[in-house]
Amino acid sequence: MMDLILYIILFLLIIVAVQNTTKEFDNNLSNLELDLKAGKWSFFLCLAFGIYVVIRAIVYNTGADYLAYYNHFVASSRHLPDIWGEGREIGYRYLVDILSSYCHYPYVFFGFCAFLGMGALLCVSLKFGKAAPYIVLGWALYLFNLSMNLYRQYIAMSLIFYALYILLSQKVKKKKLLGASICIILAYFFHRSSLVGVLCVFSVYFLRNHIVNKWILIGALMLTTVASMTVLSHVFSVIGAYSDSYMAMNDRGYMATEILQSQYDVGKMTYVNMLCSVVLIWYGDRVLNINAILRYFYLVMAICFIITPLTNQEILMRMRLYLTNFAIIGYGLTLYFNKKLYNVSSNILLVIVVVYQIFYMFLYQNSLLLEAYPLQFKY
């Protein structure tokens, strides 16, 4: 019951922040611009940030990967042999060695990961002014469960998130370029997949000056969705049964039938997810497909939706996560600008999409062996 109350409080703080942003409406699309003024909404976001970091620091055995990282930290603090050997990136191993030398409690590691990840999100989203609560809402719907897992990649994603935002600035100074490069290099030392992530995000960046027809994006989304539920589903099952990641999951105690059943349960909702994505692409097109910077986030969001049905394989899933980190900005800007236009029908439709996504996050995402809730506490 306590975990449910904490989740409700977090979501209420984000929703309250959203409601405290857009109070002035304008039906003229050409007048749309970001309002960078701070207000009460920033206080609620910071409060949500603090609660989230504390929760992540004190929970125990919440998330499929939790115990592996917990035991590794304990072994490091007691100077026991590395249970992972040399199989983990040097940046992560140094971080654990440094933290465990000053504090023997593993909670400091999980709190640090939460602070770094959420801190990067908050710093970047606040630069978008009153659109920030909508961006954080996107994070809660798309990345909250995963933030309870994949700790090394989550750190790498956070570093790339901030680095690439710097590179997207209109005036990139040499110091900023150097800082962004350092962040990208550090990301690699936490997770090797970050190199692929950088390539994925940059490839979309070079498309930002080209207006892409929304019908092409929607058609591609429908194609990948139908393909993933028919022909490709059998192909992925065969490949997955012999992949290293699949065997590793079995080694961690997951049975093949459990994995396939969880994928099937979520697969039943794939077509509903597609309809939600179509709505977001449609309404994102009219408010973001207007200049290079906004178009970049719009394209990242759309491409992320398009490849999501194909991410049954772990490699593809990890590539998509780097795009998702930027897609939530497009998601937040789509909601913010459409609310500012104050079209009743579009706002009602977008609210329905958000409500469904909250439902999907709690009831279906967790079945993918993420185990992000219920929250558990050791004491």
Plain-language structure description:
It is a single chain. With 379 residues, the chain is mainly α. It has one domain (2-367). Helices cover 72% and strands 0% of the residues.
Summarize, please.
This protein is mainly α and 379 residues long. 72% of the residues lie in helices and 0% in strands.
Layout of secondary structure:
Blueprint lengths: L1 H18 L20 H19 L7 H12 L12 H13 L4 H20 L5 H11 L1 H4 L3 H17 L6 H15 L5 H12 L8 H16 L1 H11 L2 H8 L4 H12 L2 H19 L3 H16 L6 H28 L2 H20 L16
- Would you report the number of β strands? 0
Number of domains: 1
H and E string: HHHHHHHHHHHHHHHHHH
Number of helices: 18
Q: What is the average of the pLDDT values? A: 76
Strand content: under 5%
Shape field: globular
Helix content: over 70%
Task: Report the end-to-end length measured between terminal Cα atoms.
Answer: 16 Å
Please compute the radius of gyration using only Cα atoms: 21 Å
Structural class: mainly alpha
| Residue runs with pLDDT of under 50 for 5 or more positions | 241-266
Largest sheet: none
